[in-house]
Amino acid sequence: MERIPTDPLAALPPELVTGVLSHLPLPDLASLHALCKTWHAFLVSPAQDIVYRHAAVTLGIATPYENLRDTVAQKESAFEYWKGMESWKDLCRAHTLLQRSWRDPAGGRRKQIEIGRRYWSHLAVDVLEGGFALALNFSDGRIRAVSLATGEILWESEPSEARRACNFEYDSRAGFLICSGRNGFDCFRRTRTAEGALAFEAVGEVSLADMPDLPEYWAFAYPTLAAQTSTHIFVYSLPTLTPAHRLSGTFVNVDASASAVLAALPHGLEIYSASSGLSLGVLPLGSSFPSHADWAFPDTLEAAEPDAAEDHTLALPLVPLPQEDEPLPPRELDMGEIGMHVVGDELLLWDMNLAVYFPSWRAALEKKDNHPDALPSVIHLPFEHHVVSDEVGFRDGRAVFQSYAVGTHSASSPTQRRRLNVLDLRALRRGTPARPPVVHSCEDPVGKTEKSSDLRADFTGCFHLELEVEGEDEDEDEEDAEWAGGTESRTVLRVLDVRPR
User: Which of 145, 224, 338, 488 has the least CB density, counted as fewest CB within 10 Å?
Assistant: First the structure.
C-alpha cells in the first residue's frame, strides 16, 4: 500500500500551498519560517512575494493594484521609517513592528520642546529628516519649523500681519504649505538652501477676490485646494494656483484628497472629482444607513485603574452591537456638526455620538454590494467621555480618540484625567464577537496638562504630538490675550515617538 506523504509540501501542488499560506496571519508565517529548513526554503522561494503581497493587501499596506515599487515610493515620500524596503516581506515586517509600538504607546520615547514665547498653534508634522513640526505664531504671523529630535529651529518665515490669528495646512508628501490670510492663501514649497538646510520658498498667492464672502472652511491635499463658503466651494489646482472649479450648494463642511472634494450637505456627503468638478454621487448619511458592523467603546475605559501609573496601558476590546436582542442605538450623523478626514479612499466621519469609517468611499459610492469595503463600520461614542477633533488626525487606518475622566468635560480642566485611545479602524473589518477589535488606551501619554489655554494635537504614523500653552499675563489686554497669549506665556510641544527602535 502506497504511503501518503504527511508533509503538505510533498502532497500538494506548490501553487495550492501558496494560496493557503496567503491567508495566514503574519505571526503564523513567521512561525513557519522557523519550523524546519524545508518550510523556510519554500517561503524564501518565489512564493514569498505572492504570500507576503497578499498579506500586505490584507493589512491595508497596499491596494490589490499596486506593485512593490509604487507602494514603497509612496510610503518613502511621507515616512523616512519606510526607507530601504526591498520586498513585500520587509514591508509587512516594518508595518508589524510599528503596530506593536502603537499598541504600547506608554513605551514610546517622550520629550518636551519649547516652540517659543506666547501663543503658537495649528500644528503640522513632517516625519522626514528625523521629524519636524510646523507651528504658527498668532501674534505676528510667523511660521516656524522645529526639529523633533533636537528642538532646534530649522526654518522661520518673516512676520506677516495677514497671517495673524489665521490657519495653515501642510501636505508633507508633496512639501507644500498653504497659509490662510486676509485676502487669499499664501503658498510655500519645501526646499533646501545651498548649504542643505531646510527652507520653504514662497511660490505665489491664491486670491479670494472672486469669492462673494470669505471661506468658512477650507482643506488642502496636494494638488487640490478647496475653499468653502455657505453657498459655494472654490477648487484650485497646485502648483499653478489657478482656479479649477466653482461648485454650488448649501455646504456645511469640506475636505479634500488629491483626487476628490468631499462636501457635507444637510442630507449627506456629496463627492466631486477634483480634476473635472463633476459630482461622483452622494453618500446619504442624514438618516439611518446600512453598515458592515456596529461597535461601542467599552464602559470600563474611563473607570479602569484610576490610580494606575502614568505609563499604564490598557488593551480593551470593543463591544459588538446590538446585544441580547436589543435594537441598535440611533445611528444618525448630525450633518451640521460633522467632522471629516479623508486620506486617499479611506474616510472617517464623526459627530458627538458616532464615528463612521469607510475603508473605500469609492466602493460605497458605487454601491458595490459584493465589494468587501462597500459598507462602513460604525463606532458609538459616549458624548461625555470621548472627543475626536480636527487637530487629532487619521492616517493609515488608525484614529486617535481623546477621552476625559467621568464628570470632566473641559479640555483645559486642571483636574482632568486624559487618555489617548488608539483604534485600528481596519481591524473593525476583521473583528467578530469572538475576536473583537481592541482599543489601546494610555493615560496622559505625553505628559499631564496642569494648565492650558489651548490644546491642539496631531497624529501621524510614527508620532503623537500636542501643543500646549503654559502661563499667562493677567495685565495683558484681554482682546489681545484671547488669541495671542500673555507675554509670560510659552508654547511647548510634547512628543511621543513610537517608531520602533
Answer: 488
Nearest by Cα to 112 from 87, 133, 89, 94: 133
Alpha-carbon distance of 33 to 31, in angstroms, equals 5
pLDDT, tens digit (0-9, with 9 covering 90-100), for 117-173: 877 878 888 876 668 889 888 888 889 999 888 889 999 998 887 777 678 888 887
| pTM listed for this prediction | 0.74
Task: Give the type of residue at 12.
Answer: L
What is the β-pairing status of strands 419-424 and 438-443?
antiparallel
> In sequence order, what DSSP letters do the residues of 280-310 get, joined into one string?
EEEEE-SS----SEEEE--TTTTTS-TT--T
Q: State the pLDDT confidence band at 61, using cuts at 50, 70 and 90.
A: confident
| Mean per-residue pLDDT over the chain, rounded | 76
Measure Cα distances from 75 to 52, 61, 259, 291 in Å: 17, 9, 18, 30
b/e map 87-101, b = 16+ CB within 10 Å: ebbebbbbbbebbeb
> Looking at the DSSP assignment, which residues form a beta bridge with residue 356?
349, 378
Nearest to 145 by CA among 169, 167, 123: 123
Give CA–CA dist 448/415, Å, rounded: 10
Contacts of 50 (CB under 8 A, 6+ apart): 18, 22
DSSP at 367: T
Cis peptide before 436 (omega within 30 of 0): no
Order of strands across the sheet that contains 339-343: 319-321, 293-296, 377-380, 354-358, 346-350, 339-343
